[in-house]
Amino acid sequence: MKDLYSGFKSDDFLRIFGLKKSYDFFIEIVEQDYRYMSKNEIFRILENQNGKFYRNPKDVEAAGIINFIDEIEKIFEYQTLGEYENYLEKIFERSGEVDKNVRDKYFEALSEMVVLEDFSFDNLWKGFFNENGISASLLKLFLKYLDKKAISLNLEETDEQDSENISRYSINSFSAISETQKENLIFLNIQDTFPKININNYLFTKIQRAKMGLPVSDDEKQIEIFKFYQNILGAKNVYLSYVKNLDENIDSAGAVEEIKLKYAIEAQKNKIDENDELNFIKKYFLENVEKSWESRQIGKFIPSKLKKDLDRIKAEKVSLGYYSFEEMQNFEYGYYLKKMIGNTEVEKIEDKVDNLMFGNIIHGLYEKIVMENKEVLEKGKFVINNEEIRKTLKSILNSFEYKIPKEYLEFYKKVSFEEIVKSVEKILQKVMKTLENEEEIEIYSEERIKLKSEKEIYENIFINGMIDLHIKLKNKEILYDYKSGILKNKKGEEKKEKVVNAFKQLDYYSVMLPEKNGQEIERFVVDVWNGDIIGDTREKEEEFLSEKNIREVVKKYYETDCYDIGDVKDVQNYTYQTFKDVCRREDELNDENK
């Protein structure tokens, strides 16, 4: 699905394979977190959507995808290189019939690659920054090259025949670095998969190449790492630079980490900004330019105060879930931005399972167990059966077959399976203990509550939520919230802030329940990993969330003139971190308000 999604972004791909009519259907599948696809699964989706099993794919908009899968399955049956060649010729002919420009795009991309790879940077752009000699497009191309390639910058002083000492600078892609000893050496973009090796496995697989004695990527990588160490140990001064992106799980290369650990080296600078990059470019290109670089200051920043359009805000009907309320409370401008941006198109299909996906698995498991045994639970006659729990968990995991990368699915089945079964058993035992000797029991799992509360909350505000498990007894009600995140540290101690926030979420849900003359409401947070049920031990007033607190937050949002832009010191505020470069808090607030 990951590769197919990349293809669906191309109009040419859609035209060549007749997939244009299937685009909306495919995007719908992507938004449901599918990572794999088969014809049988498509038929199952269609059956659920339409209540009818389509045996004639021509009748549905998914026909293009089904035909495409048929075509792929035929390719898997090819046994000879000639069969591949014939198929590729057909694709080439098909693309020519559809759009003559398709082939040109391949050559255009190839040409750009060749030009970049063949660049010799020494003195190439001498005088490039002269007043009348600036080419913005070429500069962008060069910067793009620097940004994407692992490169080395060799700064040397060499003795020429005329005995004049001149500085010599050279920029090379890492693959082209020489083995000669350097005076000063800078490595840029040494991160993630460095050194990146591209071995063409089109004709032969990696295993086939190894059996025939041809080099594979592992062999080439060892050679490149050797060159890396050889250059570092041979140079007098070495500078290593890499990009760290926690959101995309990108960090320094393993080779860099090994050097840091072996020689006890610590990072000298944790952030490289645009000015650093600009200074690097200036130093390289302006070394021999007569006209010196003149820095220009950007004008003074004018605070906008982020004024609200209160008339527009008050005219909208808002349905406020707990997480949206939390954003409104902690970072109004972030809440506004997320609301204005709305649902965004999926940019890529990840090969990993995020916390939300795992949470969906756990919630699905508990919901299915509770609802399938609702009657016996309410009668207090439920008997915990490990085999039934295993059977239910297996069916839940199988239902995610097309949404979880196969290696993760195998991990859950082989490693986490029994741990989850044990935790479910432990939790159910505690719940049954709570229900002992109770005469009146009503159980609701994943109960959706939506309450219009114009008077209780604010003019046009609805608050809504979903209680994981809601038990009504004769004299009290019990609310459970399942948490799949880590609630305890390595010492087994509760992470207080996370636990308090979980209970505040239950406070929010309890506000939505109909009033019953002061009937007691108990709240419990369930740690689904180890089967612990955490009781409410809060004491301080600020650890609770009341209806009054909710009103105050909403009232502030709808009555103040400017957006609150959060606490810059709150590193846990994910929404603030996402939009900090947009709201520019340091510029918007004056010294008195910081």
Automatic annotation (TrEMBL):
> Which ranges carry the PD-(D/E)XK endonuclease-like domain?
333-558
Coiled-coil regions listed in the entry: 421-461
- Record key words, sorted: Coiled coil
Q: Which InterPro entries match?
A: PDDEXK-like_dom_sf, PDDEXK_AddAB-type, Restrct_endonuc-II-like
Spell out the Gene3D superfamilies in the cross-references: 3.90.320.10
Listed SUPFAM superfamilies? Restriction endonuclease-like (SSF52980)
State the protein's name. Answer: PD-(D/E)XK endonuclease-like domain-containing protein
Organism, scientific name: Leptotrichia hongkongensis
